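INFO  loader      accepted 1 record
INFO  loader      residues=530
INFO  predictor   begin
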Amino acid sequence: MVGGVHQRPRSNHHDEGGDSQVLCQADADFSSFMDGFPAVRLFSLGTSYTYDDVIFHPGYIDFATDSVDLGTWLTRNIKLRTPCVSSPMDTVTESSMAAAMAAIGGIGFIHYNNKPKEQAELIAKAKDSRVCFISNPACLRPSDSVRDIDALKQSRGFSSVLVTEDGKPGSKLLGIVTSRDIDFLNDRQTELREIMTTDLITAPSGCRLEEASEILIRSKKSLLPVVSSEGELLELLCRTDLKRQTEYPPLGSPSVGNDGRLLVGAAVGTRENDKERLKLLVEAGVDVVILDSSQGDSIYQKEMLAYSKRAHPNLDIISGNAVTSYQARHLIEAGADALRIGMGSGSICTTQEVCAVGRGQATAVYKTASIAKDMHVPIIADGGIANSGHIVKALVLGASTVMMGSFLAGTMEAPGDYFYQDGHRLKKYRGMGSLEAMAKGSDVRYLGDQSRMKIAQGVSGAVADKGSIFKLIPYTMHAVKQGFQDLGVKSIQDAHISLANGGIRLEVRTGAAQAEGGVHNLMSYEKRRF
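INFO  predictor   done
INFO  writer      dumping tokens
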């Protein structure tokens, strides 16, 4: 069997008589069984295909789903257990998302729509984060009132807070106020110093999750602050989070950098002042950096890539975005350690509509991967991911990892607070090309920072609550493994080989076929991911 397709045994005889005629006839008969098209033919027809436009044909199954290995390369030098990457967007990846992505074997890239020092602090915080521990718990000052807790409950959904000297983590812990302290309190102007509990049970800094869990369970409390030897608040362990974690699938091994801490990436721009930003990120411990641009084949990116390689030779640099073979070759020859592929395919991106440039994501991934694989550089399929099937298609078509924005927006780990609209629990999600994001500095990504007029290439919106990525990603990856099993391939590398040799075959779907491939002809239904 080659590439998931059974091959008919060939004869060792090479005579030019009747045997060869029989052999040719047998080959012709066998070829009639090969439905669909090899990728090289399908993607040479001049049509720009999205993930939904194409469909794979099933292969032969002779192994279990758990035999599928999704281990992959992010860059030339960095390997991941899980082929998932969170996008450097200000409504997707900050420290919580980056730490969580590393914990499940992927990686998160922290956005740069902030001051350089703020981004560096987010990186340092993510690298030192621990699963289940809250590194930035809600805090108030002793002089704050119960009304401030009410406001926290309204905006963030909880009514227990820690009281510290300056109302921030890192300062001396003075007490705790829970809902039991304020439920029946009529005067909401009461200062917290009057009602907070000061007889606290705490855990020492550096304690393992197992040790802290034992203290929390034995205390029968709902909160366990982790403090330094001087009594400064460092982290918080909540009973609800601990209980929730036991309901999630096992984490597996995390992504860890050369420094022994969690693997964390970040994005930077391509302007002169980004050189100083990059220096701060390296000092903060960043493991890999994306040079962020909607159109990466530019003199700005080439010069920034050259500088980055000179100034930080041990740092892997990801270039992009690109969608054509020419762009891919150009950036790889300039020194890129990986490529970010996609232009205008994101759910909140309007680049193709506004600028009339871009490419269907399936075609972009296949075409760039065809060049990159020969130059031994991995590619990241960025954008257009709405379900596990899209991930399967991206990985099989040549990507080594997939970068996700909207797929992860709305999770507990994404930045921002939940809010309710028409009975739905939502979180804000916006494109970095939206005017709202550009106002904070993301216009450099679209080379519009020096223009007097700002033209939006994205929109702002909201997405539904998706729960935690500690559940979302493991279940999604299991669905991806099932897709690989159906194709008859056990790994991403095997999929790439099978696609190249024609073992995996494809067809284009009509609009009716796409509709038939989804839920249809029902008056009502509930669609659950898992």
